[in-house]
Design goal:
The complex is a heterodimer of chains A (about 400) and B (about 375). Among the domains of chain A are: about 30-55; about 85-140 and about 265-390, MetI-like (MetI-like fold, Orthogonal Bundle). In chain A, about 65% of the residues lie in helices and about 5% in strands. Chain A has twelve helices and eight strands. Chain A starts with a helix and ends in a 5-residue tail after the last helix. The chains are: A alpha+beta (about 400), B mainly alpha (about 375). At the A-B interface, α2, α4, α5, α11 and α12 of A face α2, α7, α8, α9 and α13 of B.
Chain lengths: ~400, ~375
C-alpha cells in the first residue's frame, strides 16, 4: 500500500499541456482552419483581381446569351441562335445518351466475357482472357482515336456507301439505319406497352404469392413476354397501324432520311463499352468465383437443375460481390465520356469548353461541370446502393 | 497371428496399365475441353470460324502485307491513290513509325540535347531495376535515391539552364518522355499524399476528417479531364497576376491531386482490414501516433493493398494520355499529331498504323506492371490468410 501511495505522490499533478492529445488536436485543427481560411482568402482575392483585370463579370446572365455555335449531334431542337443554357442541356443529354448506351453494352459484353473466362470450353476461355488482357491495358482515349481516325474515317465516301442488310448503309458520315416514323396515334402503342409492363408486374406478384401459399408455379416468363409484346401490338393494330418506315435514300452527295448514327458517337460508344467491359468481365469472374463450391454442391444435392440452381442460388450470391465494384465501373464510364471532346462529340465537357472560350466564364463553367458530374455520380451510386441493399444478405 | 491363405486375394501387385484411350491424348482433351456438350461444340465451331476469319486478316495487315521500308507516303499508297501497291491493298505502313520514332520518344526536344533524356532514362532504369528486384541489396539507399534524389537529377538534366546545360523549355518536351515524366511524378506524389489523406479520413479530429472526405469525394466524383481543365484554366486565376505556371506543371498538379484521391481510397481499404488489436498493441507499447502508423499499421496495410496500388498506377499511366486534351503532347499526342499534321505520311493506313504502335507501347508497360504486381503479391504473401 505504501509503495502505491509513493507512486501516486511521485506522479506529476497533470501532464504538460504540450503532451495532452486533446489540446494538441484542438490546436492542430485550429491551425488547419486558419491556414485554410488564409489560403481561401488569398485565392478569392486573386481571382477577383484577375477577373477585374480581364473585364469578366461573374454571374449566370451569360446563360441567356446567344450561343452562336452549332451542334451536329443533338436530341432536342437546337440551332446556333439558341441560348448557351440550351447548348449545355444538349451537352448533358448527349453525355447521358452515350453513358446509358455504353453501360448497357458494357454490361452485356462484360457478363458474357466474364462467364466465358470460367467456361469449360478451352477455346472460349482463351479468347475471353486475351480480350480482357488486351483491352484492360490500353488507354481508352487511344481506342477512341483508333476507331475514329483509323477505322471510321477511312470508310468510303457517301457515293460508295457500303450497303448492309435492311437497307442500312455505312460510310464516312456514319451508320444509316431505317427509322420508324410514328404519326398521331403512336402514343397509343406506348400506352399499350405501359399497360403490358404493369400487367406483367402484377402477374409476377400474384404468381409469387401463389407459389408461396400453395407451391404451384406459374409460367411467369411466357405470360409476361406475351403481355409486353402483345399489348403494344394490339394497340398498334387497333389504332390503324400508325407507323411507317423511313428508309435512307441514296442521293448524289448525301444520304437522306433514315436514322443516322454519327461516327463520333459510334467511336466513343464502342471504345468506352469495350474498354469498360474488360473490367466488368473481371468483376463478374471474381464474383462467381467468390461463391463457395459448397453452394453448387448443395443445390445439386437438393435436386435442382444447373440452370435453376445458378439462377436461384449462385447468381444472387455472386451479385452481392459484383454490385459495388460494378457501380464504380458505371461511374468511370460516365466520367470517361468526357473523352468525346478529343473527337468532337458534343457532350457536356466539349460544349462547356466552347462556352468557356466564347464567354470566358471559367468559374461558372467549372461549377456547372462539378454540379452535373457530381449529381450523375450521386444518382447512379444511389440507385446502385438501393439495388445492393435489395440484394444484400438479410441477416437475422 | 494366423497366416492368411486366401486364394482370392492377390499375392503380387497388378502391373500398372496405361490409362484408357478415351481419357488421355489430344483427342480426349479435345472432347473434354472443346466438345463436351452440343452447346459447347457449337460455341467452339463458331469461335474457331471467327478466329479463322479474323486472325489471318490481322496478321496479313500487320506483317505479311505490311510495308517495311520507304521514304515517304508513296511507299504506302495503292496505284489508284498515286502509289505503286496493287489496288485494294491494306496493310501497316511501318516506315511511318520508323521515320517519326524520334518525335514519338522525345517530342520536339532539340536533337543535340537528346543525350540528356537518354542519360536520365538510363539513371532511371539503373535505380528502378534493383528496386524492383527483391534480392538486390541496399534497398533503403536505393529507395531514397529513386524517390528523393532522382527527381532533382531529372529536373536539372531535362530542363537544363544550370551547369552549362542549355535550357530546354517544357513546350518542346513530348512523346514517351512526357508520358513517363507525368506518370513518375504522379506515382511519387500520389502515394504519400494518398497515405496522408487516408489517415486524415480515419482521423479522430472532426475537421481533418471532414476536409479529407470533401477532397476525396469531390475529386473522385469528377472526371480527370475536368480536373485537368480546372488545373489549366483555374490555376492561373487563383494566383496573383503576373505569376505564371508552366503548362506541364499545371498538368502535373492536376494528375497528382487526382490520383492521390484514388490512392487514398485504396489505402483506406487496407487500413480497415488491419485488426483493432494491432492498433491497441501499438498503443500499449506506448508508441505515439506516427510511430504506431509508421511501424505497425502502415507496413501491414500497404502490403495488403499492393494490387490496388498497382492498379491505381496502371490507371494513372493510362490516364496520362488525357493531357492531350489540354494540348500537351505525350506519346499518344505526338502520334495523333503526326497522323493529322504530317503531309509526308498522309495515307489511309497511317492512322491505324500509328495507333496500333502506340497501343502496343502502352500495352507493354501496363501489362508488365500488372504481372509484376501479381509476382510481388505472391512473394509478400506471408501466409497469414488461410
Amino acid at each position: 500500500m505504501a509503495s502505491q501511495e509513493a507512486i501516486r505522490a511521485s506522479e506529476p499533478a497533470k501532464a504538460s499541456l504540450l503532451y495532452d492529445p486533446k489540446v494538441r488536436s484542438l490546436v492542430f485543427q485550429a491551425v488547419l482552419i486558419f491556414l485554410l481560411i488564409l489560403g481561401g482568402w488569398w485565392i478569392v482575392d486573386n481571382t477577383i483581381e484577375n477577373l477585374r483585370r480581364s473585364n469578366i463579370t461573374t454571374g449566370w446572365a451569360f446563360l441567356r446569351g446567344r450561343a452562336g455555335f452549332d451542334i451536329s449531334d443533338r436530341l432536342i431542337d437546337y440551332s446556333s441562335d439558341s441560348t448557351f443554357f440550351r447548348a449545355l442541356v444538349v451537352g448533358v443529354l448527349n453525355t447521358l445518351k452515350v453513358a446509358i448506351a455504353g453501360i448497357v453494352l458494357a454490361t452485356i459484353v462484360g457478363f458474357m466475357v466474364g462467364i466465358g473466362r470460367l467456361s469449360n470450353n478451352w477455346l472460349i476461355r482463351k479468347i475471353c482472357t486475351v480480350y480482357v488482357e488486351v483491352f484492360r491495358n490500353i488507354p481508352p482515349l487511344l481506342v477512341i482515336l483508333f476507331w475514329y481516325q483509323g477505322v471510321l474515317a477511312v470508310l468510303p465516301q457517301v457515293r460508295e456507301s457500303i450497303a448492309l442488310p435492311f437497307t442500312s448503309f455505312l460510310n464516312v458520315r456514319g451508320f444509316y439505319l431505317p427509322a420508324v416514323v410514328w404519326n398521331g396515334s403512336g402514343l397509343m402503342v406506348l400506352g399499350g406497352l405501359a399497360i403490358g409492363v404493369l400487367l406483367s408486374w402484377y402477374v409476377a406478384r400474384r404468381a409469387y404469392a401463389r407459389q408461396m401459399a400453395t407451391g404451384h408455379s406459374f409460367p411467369v416468363l411466357w405470360v409476361s413476354l406475351a403481355l409486353i409484346v402483345g399489348m403494344p401490338l394490339l394497340a398498334y393494330l387497333l389504332s390503324g397501324m400508325p407507323a411507317t418506315v423511313d428508309y435512307p435514300q441514296k442521293g448524289n452527295f448525301n444520304l437522306t432520311g433514315g436514322f443516322n448514327i454519327k461516327p463520333e458517337f459510334l467511336s466513343l460508344f464502342l471504345a468506352l463499352s469495350f474498354y469498360t467491359a474488360s473490367f466488368i468481365a473481371e468483376i463478374v469472374r471474381a464474383g462467381i468465383l467468390g461463391v463457395p463450391k459448397g453452394q453448387t454442391e448443395a443445390y445439386s444435392a437438393l435436386g435442382l437443375r444447373p440452370g435453376t440452381g445458378l439462377r436461384l442460388v449462385v447468381v444472387p450470391q455472386a451479385l452481392r460481390i459484383i454490385i459495388p465494384p460494378l457501380t464504380s465501373q458505371y461511374l468511370n464510364l460516365t466520367k470517361n465520356s468526357t473523352l468525346g471532346v478529343a473527337i468532337g462529340y458534343p457532350e457536356l465537357y466539349s460544349v462547356g469548353g466552347t462556352t468557356l472560350n466564347q464567354t470566358g466564364q471559367a468559374i461558372e463553367v467549372v461549377v456547372i461541370f462539378m454540379v452535373v458530374y457530381l449529381s450523375i455520380s450521386l444518382v447512379t451510386s444511389g440507385f446502385m446502393n438501393w439495388f445492393n441493399n435489395k440484394m444484400a444478405l438479410k441477416e437475422r | 497371428m494366423q497366416e492368411h491363405d486366401l486364394s482370392w486375394v492377390r499375392t503380387e501387385m497388378a502391373l500398372a496399365q496405361a490409362a484408357p484411350r478415351s481419357e488421355v491424348g489430344p483427342l480426349a482433351w479435345a472432347r473434354k475441353s472443346l466438345f463436351a456438350t452440343p452447346v459447347d461444340s457449337a460455341l467452339t465451331i463458331i469461335a474457331a470460324l471467327a478466329l479463322a476469319w479474323a486472325l489471318p486478316q490481322m496478321l496479313n495487315w500487320a506483317f505479311f502485307n505490311a510495308v517495311w521500308s520507304g521514304a515517304d507516303r508513296t511507299a504506302c499508297l495503292t496505284t489508284e491513290q498515286g502509289g505503286f501497291l496493287p489496288a485494294g491493298w491494306t496493310g501497316a505502313c511501318w516506315p511511318f513509325i520508323d521515320a517519326r520514332l524520334g518525335y514519338f520518344t522525345f517530342g520536339r526536344y532539340p536533337v543535340d540535347e537528346r543525350w540528356r533524356v537518354i542519360l536520365c532514362g538510363a539513371i532511371f532504369l539503373a535505380l528502378l531495376v534493383p528496386l524492383l528486384t527483391p534480392r538486390a541489396p541496399f534497398k533503403r539507399l536505393n529507395a531514397i535515391l529513386f524517390f528523393a534524389v532522382f527527381p532533382f537529377i531529372a529536373f536539372f538534366l531535362l530542363l537544363g539552364g544550370y551547369f552549362g546545360l542549355p535550357y530546354v523549355e517544357t513546350p518542346l518536351w513530348g512523346g514517351l518522355m512526357v508520358t513517363l515524366v507525368i506518370s513518375y511524378v504522379g506515382i511519387v506524389t500520389s502515394l504519400p499524399l494518398g497515405i496522408l489523406l487516408a489517415l486524415g479520413r480515419r482521423s479522430k479530429m472532426p475537421i481533418v476528417k471532414l476536409l479529407s472526405v470533401i477532397f476525396i469525394e469531390t475529386v473522385r466524383g469528377v472526371p480527370l479531364v475536368a480536373v485537368l481543365f480546372m488545373a489549366s484554366f483555374m490555376l492561373p486565376l487563383f494566383v496573383p497576376p503576373g505569376m505564371t505556371f508552366d503548362k506541364l506543371l499545371r498538368a502535373l498538379i492536376g494528375v497528382a491531386l487526382f490520383s492521390s484521391a484514388y490512392m487514398a481510397e485504396v489505402i483506406r481499404g487496407g487500413l480497415q482490414a488491419i485488426p483493432k488489436g494491432q492498433y491497441e498493441g501499438a498503443d500499449s507499447l506506448g508508441l505515439g501516433y506516427w510511430q504506431k502508423m509508421g511501424l505497425i499499421v502502415m507496413p501491414q496495410a500497404l502490403k495488403l493493398v499492393i494490387p490496388g496500388i498497382v492498379n491505381t498506377f496502371i490507371g494513372l499511366f493510362k490516364d496520362t494520355t488525357l493531357v492531350l486534351i489540354i494540348s500537351l503532347f505525350d506519346l499518344l499526342g505526338t502520334v495523333k499529331q503526326s497522323i493529322s499534321g504530317d503531309p509526308t505520311w498522309a495515307t489511309p493506313q497511317t492512322a491505324k498504323t500509328g495507333y496500333v504502335f502506340a497501343a502496343a507501347v502502352f500495352w507493354i508497360f501496363c501489362f508488365s506492371m500488372s504481372r509484376y504486381s501479381i509476382y510481388m503479391e505472391r512473394r509478400l504473401d506471408t501466409g497469414h490468410r488461410k
